Amino acid sequence: MKIKDLLEEERDFLASWSDLISTMHKVDSKLSKLHDVVIGDKEFGTEGIIQKLKNIETDLDEIKKYDFEYIEKQIEDLKTFKSKLIGFSIAAGFIWALILELFDKVFKK
Q: What pLDDT, on a 0 to 100 scale, did the predictor assign at position 60?
């Protein structure tokens, strides 16, 4: 082989190596950005996706708990109202029957 061919091969090898290193720097930059998005960056005070998902799950658990308790309370209130309404209806029916009976006795004599 000639020296010229060896120099060309070495130059091509170094160019390929340089391209590889450049690509590695780009990949490293993109991975750093991806890491900041997923994990967050404490230096800048940003939350990552993982922390945001944990916060959302916690909020949903609280909402589910609150909604369940709220619905249970509403059901109990409606049951109480229903019981009162039934009691009032029975009492009103009894009183109405007494009033009709009194009118009947008063006006028949």
A: 86
pTM greater than the 0.70 cutoff: no
State the residue for tokens 């000639």: 2
Residues 100, 96: Cα–Cα separation, whole Å: 6
* CA-closest candidate to residue 54, choices 65, 34, 40, 68: 40
Burial class (CB in 10 A: 0-12, 13-18, 19+), 9: exposed
Determine contact, residues 11/3, Cβ cutoff 8 Å.
Answer: no
Q: Return d(Cα 79, Cα 43) in angstroms, integer.
A: 55
**Ordered alpha helix ranges (H), 1-109:** 3-39, 49-108
pLDDT for residue 1: 60
